[in-house]
DNA sequence: CGTTCAACCTGGGCGC
DNA sequence: TGCGCCCAGGTTGAAC
């Protein structure tokens, strides 16, 4: 679910907790352990108890809380990876059933909650050096909100992959997922099946600029909420950017620009939406 | 080497 | 109604 705009909105929604102290951290049910570096709930609880939240930032599609444990000076990083259905909430969750973390915050009536229906999301904690090696510039491309055309061109001009598939690769640009990849390519007038090496510097500049524009616009409208058990803001409201989608989920509808049919195709097992007449293939 | 694919999960929607 | 199947915003590591 959450891509860059949704995770950015979550981070802004819980920004009030910056500087505050975590009283207790409970893990009421299993949270998937996707990596051996992921500390067990017991360890997480003890590190978080009494810790101060010193920063709340987004890195690609992850939300990062910088925390300083009660009896330590070193800063640790608590990393939330929502994947498909994870939410960070500061109000009561949609159901109690899928609550994965309850962090009581001093001075606040409601705790910080990580809620995840499908349970594919992860919560991990690392020190600074592990953070840099796992999530630094080698592991992640430049942020899709601010990346430039030349940066994108450098990353992809040698590649045979379809541009849509490359945009989903977090090492190329960080933050783009399946919804915004389709929307960005529509805005840049580029067919998602175009091979990367065929894209000119100018075309890469159009993609970078469309990426920045669309993601900023989506943040302004607090992300995209589609379907029922869907993305919510930290105070449990729906996002509104789905109203602005030009192609995603609009197959069998008409292109708003040219009135031809929007098409849905499958690329590496995932849906891509585009307008064959507005988006040119190079 | 670059690229693709199955697996990780739950639950809603659909056809029979 | 109910069952089985398909599908969904992401990431990873194994397989090709």
Present the secondary structure layout:
Elements: H1 4-13, E1 22-26, H2 41-48, E2 52-59, E3 62-68, E4 76-81, E5 86-89, E6 99-105, E7 112-116, E8 122-127, H3 128-135, H4 149-156, H5 163-167, H6 178-187, H7 201-220, E9 263-267, E10 270-274
Antiparallel strand pairs: 1-6, 2-3, 3-4, 4-8, 5-7, 6-7, 9-10
This protein binds a DNA duplex (16 and 16 nucleotides) through helix 6.
Report on this model:
There is one protein chain. The protein is of the alpha+beta class and 282 residues long. The chain folds into two domains: 4-128, MutM-like, N-terminal (N-terminal domain of MutM-like DNA repair proteins, Alpha-Beta Barrel), CATH 3.20.190; 149-274, Orthogonal Bundle (Helicase, Ruva Protein, domain 3), CATH 1.10.8. It is built from seven helices and ten strands. α1 runs parallel beside α7 (201-220), α4 (149-156) crosses α7 (201-220) and α6 packs across α7. The mean pLDDT is 95. The structure holds a DNA duplex (16 and 16 nucleotides).
- Helix proportion range: 10-25%
Please outline the major beta sheet.
4 strands, antiparallel
Domains, number: 2
Please trace the helix and strand order, writing H or E for each element: HEHEEEEEEEHHHHHEE
Q: Give the N-to-C terminal Cα separation.
A: 30 Å
Features:
282 residues; alpha+beta; N-terminal domain of MutM-like DNA repair proteins; Helicase, Ruva Protein, domain 3; 4-stranded antiparallel β-sheet; 7 helices; globular; DNA-binding
């Amino acid at each position: 679910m959450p891509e860059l705009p949704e995770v950015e909105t979550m981070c802004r929604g819980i920004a009030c907790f910056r500087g505050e102290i975590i009283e207790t951290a409970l893990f009421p049910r299993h949270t998937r352990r996707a990596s051996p570096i992921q500390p067990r709930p017991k360890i997480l609880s003890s590190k978080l108890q009494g810790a101060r939240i010193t920063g709340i930032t987004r890195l690609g599609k992850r939300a990062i809380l910088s925390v300083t444990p009660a009896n330590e000076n070193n800063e640790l990083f608590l990393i939330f990876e929502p994947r498909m259905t994870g939410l960070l909430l500061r109000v009561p969750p949609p159901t109690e059933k899928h609550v994965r973390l309850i962090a009581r915050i001093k001075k606040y009536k409601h705790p910080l909650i990580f809620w995840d229906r499908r349970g594919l999301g992860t919560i991990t904690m690392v020190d600074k050096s592990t953070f840099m090696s796992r999530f630094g510039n080698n592991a992640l491309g430049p942020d899709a909100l601010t990346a430039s055309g030349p940066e994108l061109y450098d990353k992809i001009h040698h590649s045979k992959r379809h541009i849509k598939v490359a945009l989903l690769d977090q090492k190329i640009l960080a933050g783009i997922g399946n919804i915004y990849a389709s929307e960005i390519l529509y805005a840049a007038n580029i067919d998602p099946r175009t091979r990367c090496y065929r894209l000119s510097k100018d075309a890469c500049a159009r993609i970078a600029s469309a990426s920045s524009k669309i993601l900023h616009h989506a943040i302004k409208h607090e992300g995209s909420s589609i379907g029922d058990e869907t993305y919510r803001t930290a105070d449990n409201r729906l996002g509104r950017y789905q109203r602005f989608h030009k192609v995603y989920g609009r197959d069998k509808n008409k292109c708003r620009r040219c009135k031809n049919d929007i098409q849905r195709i499958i690329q590496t097992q995932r849906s891509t939406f585009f307008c064959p007449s507005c988006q040119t293939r190079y």
